[in-house]
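Purpose: get a first structural picture of the assembly so the mutagenesis plan has something to point at.
Setup: six entries, given in the order below. No constraints added.
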Amino acid sequence: MTAPVFPLPAASRDAIVRTALEEDLGTAGDLTSAITVSADATATAEIVVRKPGVMAGLDLAAAAFALCDGSLSIKINAKDGDRVTAGETVMKMSGPARAILTGERTALNFLGHLSGVATETRRLVDAVKHTEARICCTRKTTPGLRALEKYAVRCGGGFNHRFGLGDGLLIKDNHIIAADGIGAATRAAKKRVGHMVKIEVEVDRLDQIQDALEGGADVIMLDNMSPEVMADAVKLIGGRAVVEASGSITLDTVAAVAESGVDVISVGWITHSAPCLDVGLDFQGG
Amino acid sequence: MTAPVFPLPAASRDAIVRTALEEDLGTAGDLTSAITVSADATATAEIVVRKPGVMAGLDLAAAAFALCDGSLSIKINAKDGDRVTAGETVMKMSGPARAILTGERTALNFLGHLSGVATETRRLVDAVKHTEARICCTRKTTPGLRALEKYAVRCGGGFNHRFGLGDGLLIKDNHIIAADGIGAATRAAKKRVGHMVKIEVEVDRLDQIQDALEGGADVIMLDNMSPEVMADAVKLIGGRAVVEASGSITLDTVAAVAESGVDVISVGWITHSAPCLDVGLDFQGG
Amino acid sequence: MTAPVFPLPAASRDAIVRTALEEDLGTAGDLTSAITVSADATATAEIVVRKPGVMAGLDLAAAAFALCDGSLSIKINAKDGDRVTAGETVMKMSGPARAILTGERTALNFLGHLSGVATETRRLVDAVKHTEARICCTRKTTPGLRALEKYAVRCGGGFNHRFGLGDGLLIKDNHIIAADGIGAATRAAKKRVGHMVKIEVEVDRLDQIQDALEGGADVIMLDNMSPEVMADAVKLIGGRAVVEASGSITLDTVAAVAESGVDVISVGWITHSAPCLDVGLDFQGG
Amino acid sequence: MTAPVFPLPAASRDAIVRTALEEDLGTAGDLTSAITVSADATATAEIVVRKPGVMAGLDLAAAAFALCDGSLSIKINAKDGDRVTAGETVMKMSGPARAILTGERTALNFLGHLSGVATETRRLVDAVKHTEARICCTRKTTPGLRALEKYAVRCGGGFNHRFGLGDGLLIKDNHIIAADGIGAATRAAKKRVGHMVKIEVEVDRLDQIQDALEGGADVIMLDNMSPEVMADAVKLIGGRAVVEASGSITLDTVAAVAESGVDVISVGWITHSAPCLDVGLDFQGG
Amino acid sequence: MTAPVFPLPAASRDAIVRTALEEDLGTAGDLTSAITVSADATATAEIVVRKPGVMAGLDLAAAAFALCDGSLSIKINAKDGDRVTAGETVMKMSGPARAILTGERTALNFLGHLSGVATETRRLVDAVKHTEARICCTRKTTPGLRALEKYAVRCGGGFNHRFGLGDGLLIKDNHIIAADGIGAATRAAKKRVGHMVKIEVEVDRLDQIQDALEGGADVIMLDNMSPEVMADAVKLIGGRAVVEASGSITLDTVAAVAESGVDVISVGWITHSAPCLDVGLDFQGG
Amino acid sequence: MTAPVFPLPAASRDAIVRTALEEDLGTAGDLTSAITVSADATATAEIVVRKPGVMAGLDLAAAAFALCDGSLSIKINAKDGDRVTAGETVMKMSGPARAILTGERTALNFLGHLSGVATETRRLVDAVKHTEARICCTRKTTPGLRALEKYAVRCGGGFNHRFGLGDGLLIKDNHIIAADGIGAATRAAKKRVGHMVKIEVEVDRLDQIQDALEGGADVIMLDNMSPEVMADAVKLIGGRAVVEASGSITLDTVAAVAESGVDVISVGWITHSAPCLDVGLDFQGG
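Result (structure tokens, whole complex):
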């Protein structure tokens, strides 16, 4: 796999991390370190993964420490997207003890959350690797973290669906209600949308597919269908559109869904409900 | 229970929601609604809870719609902190169809995430209600959302630990390494910290407790001990400090921990790994 | 034509206008009005178009006044996208004289700039209306104003190309150099890109088209070709991809380009070099 | 000519450029480069001017690349304010190919826009160089870019009028209506304004000049007068105030205006309607 | 006196107040009110001045309460610029008790600080009212509060010197060292500065005045001279420039300085060292 | 004394300073330096303390220069918290003359203001050094500067009270009115507040103390009592709570207050009314 590319310049990444540090530091700063650790104490520390998983956010974690003290020496031993095992050390640092202790929680919060997203994504990706199906995320992301969570999905081997309401049309049941049926909505969209924008139409019954295809849908989303019905849908569509499966797909059901022949399986919970990957900091006095 | 208080003024709450809307809208805006729904179409819609849980974030969700179009009529049928059952309608709105569709995802992302935190918190709170123990969160929060997640914990009947590094001293193993043992660290802290700041000391063995108490700790955190050892620790401390249990506590083990007599049980996963509560929007054409 | 939809919520629009007002007010505020106009003076005023054109930005202009004084009564007499003639009044307001004078320049700067973009776009759109070709903008926008300028293009009857680097692949000559030829670049893209992302490939010679088509390009951009060569390209492509013409197209040449049969004509200068539409404020003392 | 001074510290300049980069990158980042260019590909590239003009914004353009990747080696071959000829290379860079491609559009958007302003300014300045008249800009600038566009005017050899509503009084027709005639308005201003603030009064008839002078105007703006009437005004004023010509002055008419003896000629279109200078990036694979 | 004009739109004023509220509320909010006051408790309260002074910042104070709860009824009984006596009530409010208690400190911090500046300014203004001399502030302001402090100076009857480095030239001793003497520096400035910018030159000896005048200074600042020497300087200058006195001027010495005939007396301590005016909130349970 | 710790990372500190620089530079920049000083002029300069005091803000001052020009060589000769005498040089710098002149006022504004706070704090600390009493600040800070002013208090040897409304309960007279008496308010607080939050209760009569103690107050604030009554209160409390004295305490009265046996003396004016410490920049041409 080609390594995933972080979507923002270093300065923008640092701005995100700085905001998180400031959220943690408030106006008082790190009282505990200021009071219990002397200014010239040095230390070494390692970030260790406590459970197996897939890494995402290593540069953000490193930035949390570097922004606390530019004189820290930081070495990253893994790459975003790497599978790691329990006990593996993914980052080492040495330098001012206070800075390590101050940056610790912010670093681990980024790393644990994003690696959690990458890890769940990878589980799904692995579960369908005997098929051509792709695992893909949704817009069900944590407010403020969309760019990072979508990046974490890529780290887990997944693909990204739309990044927001502006990069792709997704005509869902509610739009179809507000418009005048699938055919009308899709034809209107085809006529009026920019030439770089794809049109996806959500269907929940097989008899809607023909309208969507005739309207010019690039992608058809099969919403909450059984794998058997999906297989029928795939046949019906016959390559005239990309087929996306969606709705309540779990690690248990994803293989069957993939085997139905769909091209893409979109899963909301890899971004909105992935548990944190357990990562910790082991600290040695200088 | 007294209803939880949202920590920020309405204008600050709206600023948070606006940032999330802008993340979703990008520079293109909601192409699908713009293209498939006419400007004068109206609709009614309801936010319905799909799984039982505890609500948190209703005002944020309402703000997501209100910021899209101030002319929407929005009625909130529940309060943050309320237990809700599957199928329950917690918000109704009517007005411009486009605004409902544009605000939908942002509203649900806030509501699902925060209600997820409240729901998991409430499960723990219920599991220990036969004791005096409190359930409490940590600083293991999603970057950028600490104020909201800590509020969601309160909605679930939990209590908040420190809001950041500046409102309380928490002398952990790493500080103790960087300082010179528990006694020295605690005494130094007692002498130098402001009079409104409490001092908590983390111990992982019973023989560290005496040092912490003599140093003047207000709170002693028992890290990763069994309920039996915790009971011994509680006896040893004998009311001279608040006792907090911490480390890998689950819904299965929390009752036993509470029964050990500790005052507070802090749990990181209610903020960093709570799954989203399933909430959806049911839309009716105007 | 369906009226263009402003891409952002009212609160976001007001935030943009407030930033512009603050740029004009600095820390001193509007000294001239403060000193020469009394606090209780009232006035009426009109925004009048001095040259024929197409409107864009009326709500932004109104917001500039409303943010200066919420008590102003403002009436907008036209819609964004409307063609207007010289002398036409597009907005009327009455209320505190100071607020009108303070908001004037900010309002006119938005309205003149965006209407300028809409007006130039409309000229091109009119020039090709005997064909099926669409006029479309590029990413050559003024830093900070992309959302607004792309909206202004829609007001002028144009379409939008990509909103940024993240909503569509555009494999240009430089990418082709950095990759390994058109075929390789396109095939790699097809394999790795998300299913909602279209792939466009820039070609400057006819013999590159086959590679692009085989690689799976959704759109082929003909860069700096003569209308005759473009007609050949259109024939060669034969409906297998959308065809976009690009490069130094002017009001004089656009009809010939459109008549070559291309689907889309992208023009950078409608956003980066459109002259301001001449709009002014006629003021009457209260 | 002394080289113009950029008005902001480097950190502030970089913040402006970062905002523009983020506008282009959205939450997805540069998909095309991520997908078609390998992480370790290197390249060299040059920014080449395609049409003769005057440079402005070279440091901003360089910052766009440097913020994408700090390891790029960038060499600027010209200075802001320099006249350049078609084909001239003004910047060279080498390093990671992706960073060059990602920063390209943002860099060129700044450089083209600001150099466009400088180039138009310089044309006017050259046209009046046989006189003492200065060319000067107005507050008719693009929202959000005033500091940069006013700097570009200086790069073109022009001077700046007020930077905003707070650094100078400009009593225009509308203020005179809201106040009680030129004399009253000017006298009130003279009495109440700070001692570091100059007072300019706009007149559109010769018979208003005496009132303005008696009121204490430092500068008199002749609005929309013919060169002949301006010459009369200059005589009438007789050195008792600076004389500024304003209103619909073009490259064709500016020399005649200057020859009327006015001190300053203010021109709105050099900031609001200057076409982009054509600049491009020539890219060579590493 | 004409009432001073607040320099910013209401939305900008509210943004400043909101930032201050958020500084006070942190991520936890107002714990004391949330815990000790019930949600439906109402109250009335008054802001009372405890010491005589001059008001500045009443709208900011009102905004602090209004932003906490839009349903509060707030009545302002005084105007910025008014002299008030000890015990005078300047604002009354009634409504939700929590909102009053939450907004109290932010409101009083703005009101006390700015009224302190206005009060000290007014003392100086009163002390020189038998002369024509104006009292004027400097750029020695509290970081982040310049617009507000300069406004407070106007509320106290004072005038404003430059608002920043960009609205006026002030050639001080250090510039003269960096340039090549007063004459050279002033002549260079005269030649190169915009026509709306005044030039002030600082002198500390009488023999420098002639150079400054010949160079074309609009204003001459007499730095740290005795009133006697200032009187000589005034004579020497003879109306050819505005004369400003500066340097260590106190309430005790200001009258003598004014009587020397200078036009303007600039005083740094009215902004950087004015003690807070004592204002308090008297609260009555609902 | 252990040196005070600056509460924020360097990047956050620089962001604060950059905002202040931009406030001073506006959109025009430093006109005087641009016009009177050549780009290649170099200089050396020193920051000299004109009156004895205690330093706070040296790093902020250095950042003001460094952000203007990263090539300046800056050497800080003192530490925050150091006592300095009149005439002492605390910082030296050499490099581009323009950058020194541009950064001067911002640097001195930070340094003078914060050192003023530290100096006044230190006077009070010195006045009570024969006792165990601590000097402590309040929330009466300048809007926007709380983190810095509280840091300056620490530089002066003082301690910090609450940083905001969220890190400690302070039940004041107004809360007691809104609740139902001291006992009820304190008991409610004790029951509902987080375990890391201390509870302080304000009393103004001795007969209120018993209720506060029984309610579980950690700290009792004696508001506006005479030293004699305070001594009685201290006896009554008998070590069961920390005792804080508050209200109109001056340099003249603070020793007597401290001798009453209170633990903490909180003083609002050290942050809201401390006069600036007189610091200046001595400049030598290069």
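Chain D touches chain C through 75 residues (CB under 8 Å).
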